């Protein structure tokens, strides 16, 4: 009877706790997608407003000197 109880507890643990531990790893493809999309947005903004951003940076650096 001891082995049956141990088997039952082990199966219950695997059914209830083990999937939660796997779910806590995070969604790696989701994070990769967010990173790629963020880089794409930055490149799009840089392509449209490169001149203005460059002037703002030069102005800020010149005001520090």
Q: Describe it for me?
A:
The chain has 65 residues and is mostly helical. It has one domain. It is built from 4 helices and no strands. The longest helix has 21 residues. The radius of gyration is 27 Å and the shape is rod-shaped. The termini are far apart. The mean pLDDT is 81. Keywords: Membrane, Transmembrane, Transmembrane helix.
Apparent shape: rod-shaped
Structural class, judged by helices and strands?
Answer: mainly alpha
Number-wise, the strands total: 0
* Helix/strand order, N-terminal first: HHHH
Count of helical segments? 4
* Helix-residue proportion: over 70%
Cα-atom Rg, whole angstroms? 27 Å
Mean pLDDT: 81
Q: In total, how many domains does the architecture comprise?
A: 1
The proportion of strand residues reads under 5%
Regions with pLDDT < 50 over 5+ consecutive residues? Answer: none
Separation of termini? 82 Å
- Biggest sheet descriptor: none
Oligomeric state of this protein: single chain
List the helices and strands and how they pair.
Blueprint: H1 2-16, H2 18-23, H3 28-48, H4 50-64
């Amino acid at each position: 009877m001891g082995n049956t109880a141990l088997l039952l507890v082990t199966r219950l643990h695997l059914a209830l706790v083990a999937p939660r531990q796997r779910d806590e790893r995070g969604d790696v493809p989701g994070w990769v997608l967010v990173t790629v999309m963020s880089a794409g947005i930055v490149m799009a903004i840089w392509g449209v407003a490169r001149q203005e951003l460059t002037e703002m940076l030069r102005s800020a650096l010149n005001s520090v000197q």
